[in-house]
Design goal:
Shape: globular
Structural class: alpha/beta
Strand content: 5-15%
Number of strands: 13
Helix content: 40-55%
Bound molecules: 6-O-phosphono-beta-D-fructofuranose
Number of helices: 21
């Protein structure tokens, strides 16, 4: 039976017919207690979905859809380490990365919790050595700069967390800066390296596979820089200036970095789900191990909530099902992520990978093509900045867009009055925008009358997520909330969210094209690619002749 033939799906299609013309303004007018019915809070956060185009009936039908897809069984499969990543024949156990030490989880005769905590303990040892200035560069100087080299999941999570939680860094955690380098073309290294002292710079090469060409290219450039500056052999440079966080220890060894400098994680951790592992070392360096563990605790609390809470109050389940409702039944295919807090500026980019690399699929778990929508196009920006950029489209464009507004309720508690005032201003904008997007300007019209261009239709659905405050713990919970939301949707869509075959082919094509860049080839290339190659070759030759 195809997904769309299930009873609950058919029922939702019919229900959506009746809901398509219902305006959020009417829903609010007819029920003044709408917020109370359609919001859920936990110890650390509040989810307000009253501005979604739903009624309580919609939820009943969505829960029936979840039952029909055996969501609870799938949640158990995920947590128990069953091979939910079917195309790669392995579990997806990021939840094990945040299990407390006293718990156990057996996988093929091994307790993975023991492995996880051993790996964390080794990371802590290295973090402390660096923080206490015991880790030294090739000439005996303490480290002053850490550069994380990695891309995708080996970059976006740690980068986002370091930015979001910067205020938790303190002088006792060491006197060094943490930088991030990801881009294949060398732009970041070109800018960064001249500002660094090679003798006091430590690189963390973060790569699950240790085969990602972007990361290896940056790592090689960094090592050449160190070798040239130090005039010392590679062995000493590898020992004093490189730490590797990877799942591929033999490749890391072959690159020259000894085992004592390697931090390990496992193939059952997906790259975009990995920053709870040793991939999070830059976070631990920046905010300290205690705060890193608080982040793990926040995520673990969300795991327990996801696994044990009835669907009616289960935050990831609600968030996931609301997305399915918007995408598959209300035909909304764009999703804006709008944090009203500059510390979460990198959150949209992180979610772009988490959501689109996980659920941007059109083949189900059985390998068959599906004929319904899955992951929407997702993008975002700090909300107040986006107001001056793309909100025009949200308010008056032709595209229906669902939005997530995210903000901390409190901030700058002990800070300057002016900053407290700025936080209030930001919240006022957050609430005003979600309200205007939902309700519109209250006028009927916009049919080309004289002032039609001033009209706001409204009826753009949104969810507001309020954190009590942004701490390592609430931040961990927020990220885990989205991880599980993605999983919920994948279950309804019957797809595997843990592989990413759609990025593999491009890597192979690029590798073969690299050899073509230096020669005129009349091979099997399309005429556009040939034209681009020739243009590049011609300019390259001209530049070489000029030099
Ligand atoms: O190419 C996509 C991808 O595999 C992502 O899934 C991953 O996060 C990123 O590349 C980096 O991979 P690695 O950590 O193996 O270098």
């Amino acid at each position: 039976m195809s997904n769309q033939e299930g009873k609950a799906w058919v029922d939702l299609v019919l229900h959506a017919e009746g809901m398509k013309d219902v305006h959020l303004r009417d829903l609010f007018q007819s029920d003044p207690t709408r917020f109370d019915t359609l919001s859920v809070s936990t110890e650390h956060l509040l989810l307000d979905f009253s501005k979604q185009r739903i009624t309580t009936k919609t939820f009943d039908k969505l829960f029936a859809l979840a039952q029909e897809h055996e969501l609870q069984t799938w949640i158990e499969k995920l947590f128990m380490g069953e091979k939910v990543n079917v195309s790669e024949d392995r579990p997806a156990l990021h939840t094990a990365l945040r299990l407390p030490k006293h718990e156990t989880l057996w996988l093929e005769g091994k307790d993975v919790v023991t492995d996880v905590h051993q790996s964390l303990a080794k990371m802590e040892l290295l973090v402390k050595q660096i923080q206490n200035a015991q880790w030294r560069g090739y000439d005996g100087s303490p480290i002053t700069n850490i550069v994380n080299i990695g891309v995708g999941g080996s970059n976006l999570g740690p980068l986002m967390a370091c930015d979001a939680l910067e205020q938790y860094a303190s002088a006792e955690m060491g006197d060094f800066d943490v930088h991030f380098v990801s881009s294949m073309d060398g732009s970041e290294l070109e800018k960064l390296l001249p500002t660094l002292d090679p003798a006091t710079t430590l690189f963390i090469i973060s790569s699950k596979t240790f085969s990602t060409i972007d990361t290896l290219a940056n790592a090689n450039t960094a090592r050449e820089w160190l070798l040239k500056a130090s005039q010392i052999g590679a062995e000493i440079i590898n020992q004093h200036h490189f730490i590797i966080a990877t799942g591929n220890t033999s490749a890391a060894l072959a690159w020259g970095v000894p085992e004592k400098n390697q931090l390990l994680f496992w193939d059952w951790v997906g790259g975009r789900y990995s920053f709870w592992s040793v991939i999070g070392m830059p976070i631990a360096l920046k905010i300290g191990m205690d705060n890193f563990r608080a982040m793990l605790k926040g995520a673990h609390d969300m795991d327990v909530h996801f696994r044990e809470t009835p669907f009616e109050r289960n935050l990831p389940v609600l968030l996931g099902l609301l997305g399915v409702w918007n995408i598959n039944f209300l035909d909304i295919h764009a999703h804006a992520i709008l944090p009203y807090d500059g510390r979460l500026a990198k959150f949209p980019a992180y979610l772009e990978q988490l959501e689109m690399e996980s659920n941007g699929k059109s083949i189900n778990r059985e390998g068959e093509r599906i004929n319904y929508r899955t992951c929407p196009v997702l993008w975002g920006e700090v909300g107040s900045n986006a107001q001056h950029a793309f909100y025009q489209l949200l308010h008056q464009g032709t595209e229906p867009v669902m939005c997530d507004f995210i903000a901390p309720a409190t901030r700058y508690e002990n800070g300057a009055k002016e900053l407290q005032q700025q936080h209030r201003l930001s919240l006022a904008n957050c609430f005003a925008q979600s309200s205007l997007l939902a309700l519109g300007d209250g006028e009927q019209g916009g049919n080309g009358g004289a002032n039609g261009y001033q009209h706001y239709d409204g009826n753009q659905p949104s969810t507001s997520i309020m954190l009590n405050e942004l701490t390592p713990e609430t931040f961990g919970g927020l990220i885990a909330l989205y991880e599980h939301k993605v999983f919920v949707q994948s279950v309804i869509w019957e797809i595997n969210p843990f592989d990413q075959w759609g990025v593999e082919k491009g890597k192979h094509v690029a590798t073969s094209l690299l050899t073509e860049l230096d020669k005129i080839s009349d091979g099997d290339l399309d005429s556009s690619t040939k034209g681009l190659l020739r243009y590049t070759q011609k300019l390259g030759k001209e530049n070489n002749n000029e030099n």
